Amino acid sequence: MRSLSRSALCLPVLCLLAAPAFAGVRSEQKSLPLKPGGTLTVSTRNSSIRVEGWDKDEVAVTADIEDTDQRPVRWEMKEQNGGVSVEAVFPGRDGWHIGKSPSCAFTLKVPRKVAGAFSTSNDSIAAGGFGGTLSFQTSNDDVTLENLDGSVSVSTSNGGITARHLRASLKGATSNDEIHLEDVQGGVDLATTNSDVEASGLDGWNQGIALRTTNGDMTIDLGRATGEVHARTSRHESVKVERRSVDLLESGGSETRLRIPGSAQAIELATTNGTITIR
To answer: What is the structure's pLDDT at 99?
Structure first.
């Protein structure tokens, strides 16, 4: 009897492990009414979320879907407790798969004011042009926020946080990537690790400003923000004050305290193994 070669023995296994062909890319649209200030929840995974405000009392959603016949994706949009929920429904994890995971990316247009919660994973979030009580959560990718009002919380990991032109308070955290702030008017409480923090045009609204990192530099232009500044780092003599018209309270070693006349707002800046520059 002729013996089978090693490659012949492996061929059926390779066929079984081949990635399933994608059924293709399709776009689907749905919309529902939502009064200004209404509640909106949006949830997906391994997919991006894009949100833009508009002057209509409704939520319009485009879902861009990639899936396979073996692992189909669907999504639901429904009225819920007086608000609207949007959710991608993925196939169960019924065994081991190779190849690209199914995805369902959402692009939304929403009223100018909402109570919104937006959640995904392993992809980015971008939002702008509206306001309210807002939360954005992802992982392993960036969050970019522009022209938002109200109160904002943000959470990611291994991705950057960028916020521009916010008339809002901003709280949250990331890791292993940078924080960039420009013209953020409300109170700020943000942290990262192993990366830099850059901020300009802050105010604080007397709510306080706290920026923290590890193993990274900080360059902070406080803008109109006033108050009691406490800057600390683990490096000796690594706090630099380039701002004029400040009252220096303590300087030396790894800590600097100063007062910017105008309020008693607390401004906390902290890093390790990095330099802090205050402008």
So the answer is: 57
Please check the confidence at residue 226 and state whether its pLDDT lies above 90.
Answer: yes
The pair of three-digit structure tokens given for residue 242, joined into one six-digit string: 């380039």
Range of lowest pLDDT (72-76, 93-97, 238-242, 265-269): 93-97
Q: Which residues pair with 174 in a beta bridge?
A: none
Alpha-carbon gap, residue 30 to 79, rounded angstroms:
12
Per DSSP, the residues of 159-185 read S-EEEEEEEEEEEEE-SSS-EEEEEE-
pLDDT digits (tens, 9 = 90+) for 51-91: 999 999 999 999 999 998 888 999 999 999 999 999 999 98
Give the chain's mean pLDDT.
Answer: 90
The more confidently predicted of residues 71 and 188 is 188
